[in-house]
Every structure is written in C-alpha cells, then in structure tokens.
Amino acid sequence: MKVTFAHMGNLYITVKALLEGLGAEVVVPPMPSKRTLSIGSRHSPEFACLPLKVNIGNYIEAMEIGADTIAMAGGVGPCRFGLYGEVQREILKGLGYEFEMIIIEPPQGRLRHVLQQVGRLVGRNPVGRYVSAARLAWAKMMAVDELERSVQRVRPVEGRRGAATAALASALRLVDEAASMARVKRALGEGQEMLLDARAPGADSSDPPRIGIVGEVYVVLEPFVNCDVERRLGEMGVLVERSIYIGDWVREHLFKDVLRLRKGRKPYDLAKPYLRHFVGGHGVETVGSTVEYARQRFDGVIQLAPFTCMPEIVAQDVLPAVSRDLGIPVMTLVFDEHSSDAGVLTRLEAFVDLVERSRRRQSMTGPPRARG
Amino acid sequence: MSEKAYLGVDVGSVSTNLVLLDERGDVVEKLYLRTRGEPIAVIQEGMRALAPVAIGMEMAGVGTTGSGRRLAGVILGADCVKNEITAHAVASARVVPDVRTVIEIGGQDSKIIILRDGAVLDFAMNTVCAAGTGSFLDQQAARLGVPIEKFGELALMSATPVRIAGRCAVFAESDMIHKQQMGHRMEDIVAGLCEALVRNYLNNVGKGKDIQPPVVFQGGVAANAGMRAAFEKALGTPVAVPEHYNVMGAIGAALLAAEEIERRGGPSRFRGFQALDMDYSASSFECKGCPNLCEVVNIRMGHEVIARWGSRCGRWDSF
Question: Which chain B residue lies closest to A302 (C-alpha atoms)?
Fold first, then answer.
C-alpha cells in the first residue's frame, strides 16, 4: 500500500513524518505546478473551488508515480470542503483509477473513529509507536511554522533578492530529512541560522510596513495557487504575517474538540460586532483576524479566497465595515485557475503603495483616528 | 539652463500614451497611440514624435506605467516603474486636488480608486468581467454601425432608455439584438447599454466602496458622453472629466518620476532619444526546469540582453 495525500503548503513534511512513523509507505505528490492545475481543472466541475481542482491534480500525479491509497481530510459545516473527499473519490473512479480512499472526518468528540481510519491506512501499531510518530510529526510541524514566521521577517530585509526564499527551502529540506526529535531541533537551529545569514547588514534598524494575510486556509497556505503573494510582498519590502499557520489549523480542526483545546477562539470574539454566526470555513476567522491586525496596528490586511468560496464571500461583504471603523486598509484577492500573475502583482503593488503613502503621512501627522 | 521636462509613458493593452510635463507639472505635449500588440514599435514611434518638442528641454525624469510598464521601463531607462492604479490616483489628485472618487475605464480594465485628502484609501479593479470596458463598447458600436465617437452623443438623445441585461458582455449583446428586433430606437438602446454598463461597474468594481463626490471619470471611455451621463444619473452627483482624461496614467507616471528624482536626487536614467533608434527585440523560451514550463522572455538591445522575466521562481531574473 502506497499512501498519498494532497498538498497544502508545507504540510507534506508533517503528514509524511506521521505516516512513515506509523510504518506506511508514502508517495509525496510532485509539488503543485501548472500541469497539476490543468489536469485537475480538466477533471473537476467548473464551479467547484480551487482546492478540489488542485487536489485532483495532486492525486493523479501521485498515482502516476505509484500511489494507490489516498488519505483525505473530511469536514462538517457549510463549507463544501467536507464533501470533497467523496466527490474526488467519484471523479477518480469515473476516470478509471484503482485506488483506495480513506477520508478522515474531524473527531467531533470521538477520537476512536479517527484512529480506526488511521488504522486502515497504516495497519496495527503498538500505542507507543503512535505516540512517537505523532511527537515527531508535531515537532516538524512546529519547526515548519517557526521557519515560515522567520522567513516572513527576513524577506523584507534580505541582502540579495531571493536569498531568504532559498534559505527557507534548504531549511525545510533539513527538517524534512530529520529522523529524530533531536535532529529536528538541530535542523531548526541550522535553518534559523541560514535565514539570519540571508539578511542584509544593518537589517535590525529597518522598520518595514506590516501586512496581515487572512482568508481561506488552502489559498492562504498554498503559494502555488495564491501566485506566491507572501514572497512577492516580502520582496517588495513588506513584513507579512498570516492569520493561519499549519500548526494552528491542525490544533483547531483535528484536536479542538477531543483535547478541549479552546485557545485560539479569540477571532470569534473579535468578529462579534460584525459577524456573529458561523458561516463555514474560515469566514469568521477572516473577520476576527482583520480586527486583530487592526488592533496590532498593522498597516493593511489582504484577504485571499478561492473563487466561489461562500464563507469568504460573506466575510468580504463584512470587511468594508471593519476597514472603515478601525481605519485599516483591506484588499480582497480571489483566485481560480484563470488567475494571472500580472493581475495579482499590479494589485499588490498598488496596495503596498497605498500602505506606504499612508505610513509616510502618519509619520508626519501622527497616527490616524478611526473613521466611522 | 534649459527647462526641465518629465516624461510619462503608459503602455496599455489597447493604447500607449506618452506625455511630456514641464517643471510645474503642466502638459507640454501628449500622444495617444494604439498599441496594436507591438509595444516596442509604438514606444519608438511615440518617442520619435516627441523628440522635436523635447529638444531644448532637459529630460529630468522618466516614469512608466500600464501593463507594459516593465518593458517600457527597460527600453526607456525609466526612473520609476509604477502600477497603473497608483499612477491614475496621483494624476487625478493633481488635477482635481479634492477628488474623493476616481472612476477609470480603459481598453480592457476598469478600476475605482477612493481617495481622501489626496491619498489612496481603497481601490478595486475588475476581475472576472470586462463588460463595459472600451473594447466592448468599440465592438458594440461597430456592430450597430455607429462610429464610436458618435456613440455618446447618440445616447444623450434618448428620452426613454431601454433596460439592457448588463451582467455579461455576451448576454448584453444578445439582449441588445433582441431589443432591436422588438423595434426600439437606436438611441434608446445605446443609452440603455450605457446604463447597463454603469450598473455592472457599480455592482462589481464599485461594490462595497464608499463613493463620495467629487467624482472624476477618466480613461478612454470617459470620452463617451453617454457613459458620463449614466454615471451622473446612477450616482446622483456631477461627474468631472478632466481635460487630459485619456492620458491620465501617463501624467501620473511622469509625476511619480519627478517625485522619485526629488527623493533620490541625481540625473535621470533615461537612455536618451538616440538610444531609441537601436534595435530592440523580445524573444522567449520555455524553461524546462520544472513542470511549470514558464515562458521566459528576453529583451535585447542590439545583441545584448537588457532584461529577462517571466519565470515563476525567479531563477532567470538575474543574468
């Protein structure tokens, strides 16, 4: 049995560590490319959102290199993602592929079902092995998050264009290859070193503009589908932060109910004046995180959403009120298989100009008062 | 000492515009040319036309904007290469200092820019739909047999515009054909089309934007008096069309270049008028480094590669 799964940013490092730790043979799909997207779009319903299309492309490319089992996350609530595992199974079956698909639904209080599904993937394991595999995967996930947070700080002050991104790639490779907790720790240390070395001399004294990225988890985390917004903003000299890192997402979605981890509920409280209802996906988080960034005096917020994403459309309609009340510029970018790099770049440049001009103005006249 | 001049070049999908500003920011000369898919040749043609006017002036700064801004920037040796949103906003704020809303409709895109106290506060550009842009109006005018220059005047003659479905350019066309077959008058259909396109613009590009007067309407489509009247009717406020409405992007680029030179100091990077007679060419190859198969473009001046772009990962950008 050769197990594969869909890409979402650098999540593959964690999933691979977990499944391999449990004795599964893993086939990581090729990194998403234009080929992935065109295969996926060809076989997907036109008005399904982008994640479904790229997932399909990932599975087909993984099966081309030997995968025969697909692990996919399920979901509940108004976001269509919860249905995608089933839809994808039917699409691939219709195309004549032979494979097994194992959909891991969120626990909703019952961890047993999750363990049963995982058991189908990896066979029987002693409890100790589960614990050690989970610990290693968790450590890698935390390391990836830390490196991603670092690269966001280094990019605006890198010495040579692309140096930070290159350092990140090397650092991630080290984390991916690390086979023990101790090695992950060492890889993280070395990676952080490499990132620090990528900075220009005198970087400490710079004060780059700060932009927060909010929106739907998949397009926020997957640089291939969001036209690499994080890197592009970083290389324009902007310090970027995301409302979602993979560690947060896993905590929130796989363990929240089981382990009663209620931390990270803050976005819900912050969103309350604007949006009181669960709208599926990350709609409420998008609004709450925008409020949070405004309070932290970020210079702007960019919302990312796949075309036709209902939760983010609800959030998009609410954001102008947040922007007006709290005086923070907000821009929405919508992505599908027709998105062009040029169009995204023009909007990013204009947004950065807007942010920089208002910063220059504030440095002359003091902080702005909230309008409303 | 000769008077300083600032050059602004806006290379768009449909038109390429050049302006020469004097030190006070006033327009000395402007050119509105069709890009015809040959940006390099059009820039050279435009520069040759400007040369006689520019003689005797010192070229103190050059700015480029529009979808071809990088290409134009490399060929001219620009001091400032800026996106068209910022360029339009800067030009508008110069011409109408208290402007709070800019409606810009060009050949293939449309944008809205919200300004407060001369600074951009919010903006949007059309994403999934190009209904209502210049290319569509051109096409409809041709189909109806009305010269595009007369299109606006004809719309103004209508007393009872018909309602045209404006959600999609193709459906708008079907609906217009239907209205013609019903026997509606040409001016009512044309006026109805303008209203439909304005509705479409306000519901898509202008959605959620805080549109406040004074409103400035610029870009090639601002020449259309029917569109202007439809905007005034929908917004309930006068809409101003600036004198140089069709070259505002280029004016903005020139103003930004002047700003950049002031900040950075020193002479312009302008290659000079003679350099424009060089043989510039663009060629491309497919990078086989990964499955993205990016189309990488080389820009050559003579035999020398002076710029390269197009790779997603950036590996070809330095040379």
Answer: B122
Do A190 and A302 belong together in one domain? no
> How many alpha carbons fall within 13 Å on the CB side of residue B145?
2
pTM summary value: 0.88
- Number of domains comprising chain A: 3
Which value, in Å, is the radius of gyration of the alpha carbons in chain B?
Answer: 21
| Number of A–B residue contacts, CB under 8 Å | 71
Alpha helices in chain A (DSSP H): 11-21, 34-42, 50-64, 81-94, 111-122, 127-154, 163-177, 181-197, 217-221, 229-235, 246-250, 256-259, 266-271, 283-295, 310-326, 341-365
A349 plus A218 within the same structural domain: yes
Choose the closest CB to B119 out of A307, A331, A361.
Answer: A361
Whether residues A251 and A369 fall in one domain: yes
Nearest-CB residue to A334 (from B85, B127, B209): B127
Does B245 contact chain A (CB < 8 Å)? no
Distance from CA of A29 to the nearest CA of B (A): 13
Q: Is A119 on the interface with B (CB under 8 A)?
A: no
Domains of chain B: 3-89+249-277 (3.30.420.40), 97-239 (3.30.420.40), 280-309 (no CATH)
DSSP E strand boundaries for B263-302: 280-286, 295-301
Question: CA torsion sign, B204 to B208 to B214 to B219?
Answer: negative
Q: In terms of domains, do A303 and A216 share one?
A: yes
Identity of the amino acid at B184: H
**pLDDT of chain B, 319 residues: tens digit per residue:** 578 999 999 998 888 999 999 999 999 999 999 988 888 999 999 999 999 988 888 999 999 999 899 999 999 999 999 999 999 999 999 999 899 999 999 887 889 999 998 889 899 987 666 666 788 888 888 888 888 888 889 999 999 999 988 767 777 788 888 888 888 998 999 999 899 889 889 988 888 889 999 999 999 899 999 999 999 999 999 999 999 999 999 999 999 999 999 998 879 999 988 878 888 888 888 888 887 788 888 888 888 888 888 777 777 776 6
Q: Are residues A194 and A224 in the same domain?
A: no
Answer whether A353 sits within 8 Å of B85, measured CB to CB.
yes
Domain-ending residue, one of A72, A99, A124: A124
A44 touches chain B (CB under 8 A): no
Respond yes or no on whether ipTM tops 0.85: no
The CA distance from B292 to the nearest CA of chain A, in Å, is: 5
Tell me the CATH number at A305.
3.40.50.11900
B125 interfaces chain A, CB cutoff of 8 Å: yes
Residues of chain B with C-beta less than 8 angstroms from the C-beta of A357: 119-120
- What is A236-265 written as a DSSP string? TT-EEEES--HHHHHIIIIIHHHHT--TT-
Q: How far is A249 from chain B (nearest CA, A)?
A: 27
Query: Which tokens is A351 given?
Result: 């947004």
Please say which residue of A205, A220, A248 terminates a domain. A205
